[in-house]
Design a protein that fits this description.
Elements lengths: L1 H20 L21 E18 L9 E21 L2 E12 L2 E2 L2 E16 L3 E16 L2 E2 L2 E13 L4 E12 L6 E15 L1
Antiparallel strand pairs: 1-2, 1-10, 2-3, 3-5, 4-5, 5-6, 6-7, 6-8, 8-9, 9-10
Length: about 200
């Protein structure tokens, strides 16, 4: 009997470490990763822009005895101003409305282009951090000189891209073609602008 007890004790002592080594600790609970943030372009925004314009004028001065009877010139120069707008986000589709005004140093000899204002629709694709869009709408040019008045309405169309730096700040660029057919009694102005933009989203 004593021999049996000794054998049982030896077996239990030698088997204990082996059994302990085979015990598997419980697995850590699974934690799902947080969902990726959803890009949302909806809401109002305001900002500033700075760029370059290149315009042509072809007009006849109706004023008798004016210093400039006919103007057929081109000029380019810097422009800059402010913009404000609102976007609606429908997933991949984003659309909105924007108003802006630029002050320019463009001058056709003595005929100065003072401001170009626009009211445009923007429609495009949300690619995540970028909004690529086409745009079109109404434009108004203001200016005068040499007996000419450049005050008149026209249209504008072009394309652009906005890129989110974060949820509040957006950088972008656009290229816009303009045409004004009634800035003088006989003639018009047309040309391009190329602008860099910075916007703040509310």
């Amino acid at each position: 009997m004593k021999a049996f007890v000794r054998v049982a004790a030896i077996v239990s002592i030698t088997a204990a470490p082996a059994l302990a080594g085979n015990i598997t600790p419980p697995a850590d609970p699974y934690v799902a990763p947080p969902p990726e943030p959803i890009s949302d372009w909806a809401g109002p925004y305001v900002g500033v822009q700075l760029g370059f314009g290149d315009f042509d004028i072809n007009a006849t001065n109706p004023t008798p005895g004016a210093n400039l009877a006919v103007v057929n010139l081109s000029d380019d120069g810097f422009l800059g101003g402010v913009h404000a707008g609102y976007n609606w986000d429908r997933g991949t589709l984003v659309y909105g409305v924007e108003a802006d005004i630029d002050f320019t140093d463009i001058s056709f000899n003595t005929v100065d282009v003072d401001t170009i204002a626009r009211l445009r629709l923007r429609v495009g694709v949300d690619t995540g951090s970028a909004f690529v869009y086409g745009t079109a709408g109404a434009a108004h040019m203001s200016g005068s000189g040499g007996g000419f008045s450049l005050d008149g309405w026209g249209w504008v169309a072009g394309a652009g891209v906005d890129y989110k730096l974060n949820e509040k700040w957006v950088m972008g660029a656009d290229a816009l073609y303009h045409e004004f057919d009634d800035v003088s009694p006989s003639g018009g102005v047309d040309g391009m602008t190329y602008r860099a933009r910075v916007s703040y989203r509310f």
